Amino acid sequence: MPEKTDKMPIAVIILTFNEEANIEAALDSVEGWASEVFVVDSYSTDRTVDIALAHAKEGVKVIQHAFENYSAQWNWALKCLPVTQPWIFKLDADERATEAFRNEVGKRITDPDNKETAFIVHWRLIFMGRRLRFGGWYPNGTIRIWRKGQAYFQQRETAEHIVARGKISEIKNPIDHHDKKSLGYWIERHNRYSSMEAREIITGNITGEIEPRFFGRHHERRMWLRRVYFRAPFRALFYFLYRFVFRLGFLDGAQGFRIAFLHAAFFYWIDLKIQEYRKTGVLPEVIWPERGRPYPEVANSPLQKHVESLSTDNHE
């Protein structure tokens, strides 16, 4: 848990659904550092909301909102959450803000000469209890910090990307990605992701609004590689060889093989679902687990009623 110091002028937003295994560590990593922390839950059926509410004394605010897709959920949060801070930080429930990261961000956003609109953040992957050092998993930056009102999420079902204008810089110190859920959950989740990604590719939305550029920033180069990848033959096999051989994933031993194989399988699922669509004309099905009911303490809170009133106004 970060050392209690003067809080930074930044609001952390975390989207959750059944994240009881992860949410505690994510909240601990930003409490005492961020001036505001919002948890936007999409009706979890586990103890996610209970755990988040237990942090209310530290200023964590919990809201629930029906889930449509990741971009829509984020754009709703940016429109309706009562954020008062000048900066916003997107943190996933399975991520942790490290001390070095917090210190660097604090210096950058409080610098009176700071002209940036947004910052790219990198994350280090911890898989099955081991930090992966090879395989090209790091650096892997995307925009995660931006000035309030200066960014939005492009419309994609998954792999949502932030669009920000103006000067974009980079935070050198990474956060940690450490999902404590089971491997079975990883497979279930990536089955959904593969259906969503296949649907986007079928409709022609491969890179969204980000301009693919090989010599651009990390997220622009990633979009360039994505566009090339989905035009290549034997791409799932090539992906595995790229991670495990060319990017030296084998130096991480068994864990390097496992993560490269699983991600190659994920991309193969996408290809299979695209092929299935071409034969049947039916878009891939996204199979979601059952959602829960509104949490009474959250549903009756003034904050929840406030954001619901804003949601109603936005739809009128």
Describe how the helices and strands are arranged.
Elements: E1 8-16, H1 23-28, E2 34-41, H2 48-53, E3 60-64, H3 70-80, E4 87-90, E5 95-96, H4 99-109, E6 118-121, E7 123-127, E8 130-131, E9 142-147, E10 151-153, E11 162-164, E12 168-170, E13 175-178, H5 183-202, H6 218-229, H7 235-246, H8 253-280, H9 296-299, H10 302-315
Parallel strand pairs: 1-2, 1-4, 2-3, 6-12, 7-13
Antiparallel strand pairs: 4-9, 5-13, 6-9, 7-8, 10-11
Helix pairs in contact: 5-8, 7-8
Describe this structure in words.
The mean pLDDT is 92. It is built from ten helices and 13 strands. Strand 10 and strand 11 form a beta hairpin. The protein folds into two domains: 173 residues, Spore Coat Polysaccharide Biosynthesis Protein SpsA, Chain A (Alpha-Beta Complex), CATH 3.90.550; 98 residues, no CATH class. The strands form three sheets. The protein has a seven-stranded mixed sheet with strand order 3-2-1-4-9-6-12. A four-stranded mixed sheet has the order 5-13-7-8. The protein is globular, with a radius of gyration of 20 Å.
Structure keywords:
single chain, 316 residues, alpha/beta, Spore Coat Polysaccharide Biosynthesis Protein SpsA, Chain A, 2 domains, seven-stranded mixed sheet, four-stranded mixed sheet, 10 helices, 39% helix
Helical run tally: 10
Q: On the 0-100 scale, what is the average pLDDT?
A: 92
CATH third-level topology of the largest domain = Spore Coat Polysaccharide Biosynthesis Protein SpsA, Chain A
Give the low-pLDDT segments: none
Order of helices and strands: EHEHEHEEHEEEEEEEEHHHHHH
Give the overall silhouette: globular
Helix content estimate: 25-40%
- What is the CATH superfamily classification of the largest domain? Spore Coat Polysaccharide Biosynthesis Protein SpsA, Chain A
Structural class from helices and strands?
Answer: alpha/beta
Q: If you compute it from the alpha carbons, what radius of gyration comes out, rounded to the nearest whole angstrom? A: 20 Å
The tally of strands reads: 13
Would you state the CATH class of the largest domain?
A: Alpha Beta
Q: How many structural domains? A: 2
